[in-house]
């Protein structure tokens, strides 16, 4: 399309890492929890509006903080620090 710039985003698929860490059942549980946090409660689906509204929810921010802290701890352990 004319006038549309392509944006390149670096992406690392961490789903296999999560699956190894949580196991199959734990991964499905976490995916369901994430869906519950992002969905439109009245419609039972994730919409653009529910994504905008819920992506900065306190629950989601707390989950993100937990995952980041855990990832940093694992990284430090693997580096032998």
Automatic annotation (TrEMBL):
Superkingdom classification of source: Eukaryota
Protein name from the UniProt record: Uncharacterized protein
InterPro entries (UniProt xref): KIC/PBP1/KRP1
Classification lineage: Eukaryota, Viridiplantae, Streptophyta, Embryophyta, Tracheophyta
A GO MF label: calcium ion binding
């Amino acid at each position: 399309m004319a006038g549309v710039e392509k944006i390149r985003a670096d992406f690392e698929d961490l789903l296999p890492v999560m699956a190894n860490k949580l196991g199959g059942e734990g991964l499905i549980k976490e995916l369901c929890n994430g869906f519950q946090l992002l969905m439109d409660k009245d419609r039972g689906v994730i919409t653009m509006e529910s994504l905008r509204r819920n992506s900065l929810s306190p629950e989601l921010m707390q989950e993100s903080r937990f995952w980041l802290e855990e990832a940093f701890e694992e990284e430090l352990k693997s580096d032998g620090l």
